[in-house]
Amino acid sequence: MYLIEVVALARLPRTLPQSFSYFSLESLEEGAVVEIELNHRRLFAMVTRSIGVKQAKQDLRSRAFQLKKIQNIISRASIINARDRALLQWISEYYLAQPSTVLKLILPSFITDTFEVSSWPARHEIEPYPRMIEVVPEEYPIERYQKAVEHALQNGRQALILVPEIERAETLADVISEIVPKERLLVVTSSKTPRELRTSWHRVRNGEPLIIVGTRTSLFFPFTNLGLIIIDRESSPAHKSWDQEPRYDGREVAAKLHSLHGGQMILAGYPPSLNSYHLAKDEQVARLIPSRELVTSPLSLFVDMAREIKEQNEFVVFSQVLKDKLRNVIQDGGRAFLFVNRKGFAPFILCQQCGFIFRCSECSVPLVYHVQESLASATLLCHHCGSKNKPPDVCLECGSHKLKAYGIGIERVAKDLKKMFPNVPVLSLLHGEPKETKNAKTALEKLKKMSCYIAIGTEFAIPLRLPRMELAAIISIDSALSLPDFMQTERLFRSLSLIRRLSSKIFILQSYAKEPEMLIDLFHGSFEHFAEKELKERRRFHYPPFGELIKLTVQDSSREEALTQVKRLYAGLRIVPHYFGPEAVEVTNPYPAYIEKKKGNFIFHILIKIMDASKSRDMKLLIAEHTPDTVQVDVGPQSLL
């Protein structure tokens, strides 16, 4: 007889144990699937340990309850290999996620539907290489990737190139296909059909030497022969899962894969994340290539729009220097890219009589004013819940007709550009609604065939593989300056750097801020200067990479109920600093989200700051015990707001 430990393959409350003990008449290998009875329910479960009763006597004596027998053996063969079981356990503990939830990430439905698997190929032992970060110009990553990829294939290994977006996967795969045989290249993203993913899954499982270019989905393929991991555009926030449990970071999961499989790891892209830069400075990775060795910067001009408005005695979207440079570029048959960080025509409509701002009834945000073809088609749109309203003729508060659209949106910029350059194509690159995304893709295909145009885009356009332009400009990025978020400065520097690198000749940054010192500092500073200054601040406040953050979120349609829940959660979590010490961990008081109401729900957060990494695992176990399933858990949040 054997004592076996299992984890249920059904979602159980986070506050309950996730591992259970049963007995079996035969030994079962780790990863086998059995049927158990738990709380009068029949569930599938995965074996995590199997030990003879004689060896487990001491363990059995200490139990205050009688063990139940397993009901049935569903699969004697292991459904996942040893390294994936280790990955499952790590993700579950690190991200405070139930094993059943993590297993859904790791195993595709065609396995969990039947639990029919063949034996696993023999393990390949790979000598580990030091992790490496390489700062590479965005338009030429292939020059750095080629050598590593070819080396992996020559040694019969698999290589994973992790990319942040589906579009990037397709683009990079086209480039990679020029240097490796196409039959050795797989693209793994959620856009692929179930049949394509199944074929790729089995090829990877069989240990074929392959190059896998994929988004986060590819991290959970059953690698048996992995010798190289490349994280492409590693500073991109798109590597982080934000809309589903567990909210894992693809870069951290890739690093764990590397520690389990060995082999080489390259963190690529410019600018690097501050976490990677810190690793390089700590000599935990092999090499950091200074950006100044790679790119010749264009002529960069900073324009104070407050002074511009004063001189022209009216609000203007385009400074005189930007208009002059645009005309020169267009006259020479060149191309320009203008960045606008707001969708719509204007961010909000204001009553000039009483100061009333039209807001979404379901979200605590102003409605964005959109004007597509004409004023007749104008709408007020909430970008959070999607609600649409026709713009009113009078103020809902005081009845005044003095309504005015304030701020700069991409539609306004497009309208003004078409007036200034009626014979020049103006192409918008933004996404959101299906129509917008479709139009952006059409515009992207058009500009690849054109030599003279003006492209305008939101944040969506930055990762696209745009051609180098003669001019790149930021119309305004001031709204991002006011966000009180610890990663905001890093995000700003990344946006400035990537937009600047789109231009081969001229880069212009406009600012309406009254005191734009921080923006000027980012504009003129090198990456190394920025990184050292920012890391100094983060060390002071124990922000990553000098501490670990966990954001817990409570939401409810009733503000009072949301407050009650978050206060109850906070009361339970106070045991964590009491047990481990306030110098090791900090739990903040509950605070409202930056957008307190969204889609009809009121949102409150609690932030946990872990300052003693050696106790992180034990702290998380205690945090999980006091965090109900109704609470959203985000380990390593990209925003505290």
Automatic annotation (TrEMBL):
Pfam families: PriA_3primeBD, PriA_C. The keyword NADP does not apply. GO terms for molecular function: 3'-5' DNA helicase activity; ATP binding; DNA binding; hydrolase activity; zinc ion binding. Its cofactor is Zn(2+). Residues 12-108 form the Primosomal protein N' 3' DNA-binding domain. Binds 2 zinc ions per subunit. The keyword Isomerase applies. GO terms for biological process: DNA recombination; DNA replication initiation; DNA replication, synthesis of primer; double-strand break repair. It comes from the Bacteria. InterPro entries: P-loop_NTPase, PriA, PriA_3primeBD, PriA_3primeBD_sf, PriA_C, Znf_CHY_sf. Zn(2+) 1 binds at C351, C354, C395, C398. One of its GO terms (cellular component) is primosome complex. Zn(2+) 2 binds at C360, C363, C382, C385. Keywords: ATP-binding, DNA replication, DNA-binding, Helicase, Hydrolase, Isomerase, Metal-binding, Nucleotide-binding, Primosome, Zinc. Residues 545-619 form the Primosomal protein N C-terminal domain. Component of the replication restart primosome. PANTHER family: PRIMOSOMAL PROTEIN N. Belongs to the helicase family. PriA subfamily. Initiates the restart of stalled replication forks, which reloads the replicative helicase on sites other than the origin of replication. Recognizes and binds to abandoned replication forks and remodels them to uncover a helicase loading site. Promotes assembly of the primosome at these replication forks. This is Probable replication restart protein PriA. It comes from Candidatus Sungiibacteriota bacterium.
